[in-house]
Design brief:
single chain; about 700 residues; elongated; 5 domains; 16 helices; alpha/beta; Rossmann fold; 8-stranded mixed beta sheet; Immunoglobulin-like
């Protein structure tokens, strides 16, 4: 059917009368004067006169056509296929309007963000409904957290919902929204059931796997699907920071920051000299330029120095474009935590390489230039009397034979007040003495030591190996999989068995290959104790020379001290939960989002572990964690939340793919601007005609210019 978007402009066709009137005026006969010589010439040029009149007629037709076609083009004619039959428009209908509120809808088009255009289109659809039509409005991001709305006849209620809807910062989730729309329409009693989907058509939002099972449900419960492409069919381009990897190196006086950033160019043209800037605590500390080829990515590194003893909030950003939300990425750096650790060496040797604590000290503070936040101090049994345990965060008792009774009582008080003790065993340890003297601290009573064979292949018994407990203990979760894979490489030739009955609230961190405990932790009031059932040197095992030893010891110290905070806080994607183990003396904490809104959360059990869980990560930025308005030493003061950059690629799904996904469902895809009236919203302009007509008008103008000069 032929129609016009601006039919009033057809009045411009009357302008075609102007050249006709001028032509008729010019046809008025002039006063003639007889002159013999001229009569002779006119008689000889009759054929020229015929050509002249024909040229004038052609010019008349061209000029009239020029004005006519220009008026028709400005009226914007189109041939379109309506979204439903005439009967469909004359009977009550049930409608679900789905608004894509993913963060790609923040794309600022020619006039306004796509989301604003989508809301306006939804309001126009509501306005077209009759009093007998019912409707519901849903957003793509709201399906996970909101109850399904009921179909409603109240237009004001529907318009209020649209007006109050806001953009989310999550990727598009079209499939769950279609599921919800089908569920709403399945209960409708009207014969005509329609879904209106207002989206920018980016490919990321579509799940092909869903349509393999969803086609049949669509055909059974939905009469027609109208998809309105808010981007008007245009190809969209974008540049985004798709990955940021911050690192921190602790030097003697300062901390050195290192940011590895990746910028992706989702467009067919190169991005040249794209400025990127790194900010720490609101101040710019580094900058550089990216030159990224079309549809490619580039990674650069930025270096800077920051003050030790603080938590630093930072971000990296690039110059803005039509979609600005993914041009900035947040991170948090921790230069604050410092653990004073006492290593009591129960078997010192003249050769330091054979001392009980040699490998342990190197693991806790491995380098001279790059200073570890863990500060170990070694002392012998003879020096313990001069040591005050409360001056330390962690105490290692390494193959210690005995301790004075007053120091044992001091050790117990140290743990109850929040300190941590780690027992490692050896040939000087007597099980009976430990059970009697350290029973208030040990996770299990020691039973007996057992020796396994050496690595000789002729031996019947082979050395034991390590393996993780199930579920994985919190002390190990932060370690990378590459480290975890090396567990089984360590060999143990002698271990202590323990009684199976624990002495308190205990958990196994690591086990041996024969399922006996290897590393056990116990909560004692505010503090923790850990028992390692083998030696910490190379007398009973080769663990100290394995790659896993260093990260295991460092992370174990962080865990028992309550400082499971890494130097760099891992980012959380928008919409994902933030979780953190609950310190024993805490019953609540408060989290402040980037907009300043606060929420108090209480701990709950997550996989048999008491932890805090925060679900309201609805926007990118840095979230603050406080207890009674102050930072807590065993909690990170803040954590970063960033958008999922899978939505940054604005590659669009084409109409042929969409039709294939929908199967036999009646489908209409509209790519025309949403402000062009009811018919365009409810149908698809199969072919717009004003472009070809404007081109034809230009051709006529060129021909007229050529003819008039002859």
């Amino acid at each position: 059917m032929l129609s016009f978007l601006n039919p009033l402009l057809l009045l411009g066709i009357l302008g075609a009368c102007i050249p006709i009137i001028i032509h008729l005026i010019n046809k008025k006969k002039a006063i003639s004067h007889k002159f013999a010589a001229i009569d002779f010439l006119l008689e000889s040029k009759k054929r020229i006169s015929v050509k002249f009149k024909l040229r004038q007629l052609i010019l008349l037709i061209l000029r009239a056509s020029l004005l006519t076609f220009l008026a028709v083009a400005l009226a914007r004619p189109l041939i379109k296929n309506y979204g439903g039959s005439g009967a469909e428009r004359n009977i009550p209908t049930s409608n679900v309007i789905v608004i894509d509120d993913s963060y790609s809808m923040q794309y600022a088009g020619r006039h306004e963000p796509f989301f604003v255009a989508a809301r306006n289109a939804a309001m126009k659809i509501i306005d077209t409904l009759t009093k007998d039509d019912e409707a519901a409005v849903i957003t793509c991001s709201g399906m996970a957290s909101q109850a399904l709305p009921e179909l409603d006849y109240d237009k004001k209620h529907l318009l209020d919902f649209i007006e109050q809807s806001r953009l989310s910062y999550t990727p598009a989730r079209i499939a769950p929204a279609l599921d919800a729309a089908i569920e709403i329409l399945a209960t409708a009693r009207t014969p005509v059931k329609r879904i209106f989907l207002l989206t920018d058509m980016t490919r990321n939002g579509w799940d092909p796997a869903w349509f393999r099972s969803g086609q049949e449900r669509l055909q059974r419960h939905v009469s027609r699907i109208h998809i309105v492409d808010i981007s008007e069919g245009r190809k969209l381009t974008n540049r985004a920071i798709t990955h940021v990897e911050p690192k921190l190196t602790m030097l003697e006086r300062i901390a050195e920051g290192h940011i590895k950033a990746t910028v992706s160019n989702f467009s067919p043209t190169p991005a040249k000299d794209l400025l990127a800037q790194v900010f720490i605590n609101g101040e710019r500390v580094a900058q550089g330029f990216f030159t990224v080829d079309a549809n490619a990515s580039e990674t650069k590194e930025f270096f800077f120095t920051i003050e030790k003893g603080k938590y630093h909030r930072g971000w990296i950003e690039i110059a803005g474009d039509n979609l600005s939300i993914d041009n900035k990425r947040y991170f948090v750096l921790n230069t604050f935590h410092k653990l004073d650790t006492l290593l009591v060496d129960g078997d010192p040797k003249t050769n330091i390489y054979e001392s009980e604590t040699f490998y342990l000290e190197k693991a806790l503070n491995p380098g001279r230039e790059h200073v570890s936040p863990i500060k170990p101090l070694i002392c012998s049994l003879h020096e313990v009397d001069n040591i005050t345990f409360s001056n330390f965060n962690i105490i290692f008792l390494c193959n210690v034979e005995t301790l004075p009774s007053e120091k044992i009582r001091e050790l117990e008080m140290f743990v109850k007040e929040g300190g941590s003790v780690i027992f490692t065993l050896g040939n000087k340890v007597d099980a009976g003495y430990y059970n009697n003297s350290f029973g208030a601290l040990l996770p299990h009573r020691l039973h007996a030591a057992r020796t396994f064979s050496t690595s000789s292949p002729l031996s019947e018994e082979q050395p034991l190996h390590l393996k993780t407990a199930e579920p994985i203990h919190p002390a190990l979760r932060i370690l990378p999989e590459t480290r975890m894979d090396t567990l089984s490489s360590a060999k143990f030739y002698r271990i202590f068995y323990v009684d199976p009955t624990p002495l308190g609230n205990c958990r196994t961190i690591l086990s041996f290959s024969d399922n006996t405990p290897a590393l056990i932790e116990r909560q004692v009031d505010r503090g923790k104790t850990v028992l390692f059932t083998s030696s910490i040197d190379r007398d009973w095992t080769d663990l100290p020379v394995r790659p896993f030893f260093l990260p295991l010891m460092q992370q174990l110290c962080r865990f028992v001290s309550g400082s499971v905070l890494d130097d760099v806080q891992k980012e959380i994607l928008v919409g994902y939960d933030w979780q953190f183990p609950c310190p024993p003396d805490l019953n609540a904490l408060e989290i402040t989002n980037p907009e300043g809104a606060k929420i108090i959360i209480e701990p709950r059990f997550v996989t048999n572990e008491k932890a805090f869980s925060y679900k309201e990560t609805n926007m990118p930025g840095i979230y603050d964690v406080t207890v009674e308005g102050k930072a807590h030493p065993q909690l990170p003061p803040s954590f970063p939340v960033n958008v999922d950059t899978v939505e940054s690629n604005l590659d669009k799904i084409d109409q042929k793919e969409m039709t294939a996904y929908m199967g036999g469902t009646n489908l209409t895809i509209t790519t025309s601007p949403v402000g062009e009236g009811r018919d365009v919203l409810l149908g698809e302009a199969k072919k717009t005609l004003w472009g070809p007509i404007l081109f034809l008008t230009l051709c006529i103008l060129l021909i007229e210019s050529f003819v008039s000069r002859k």
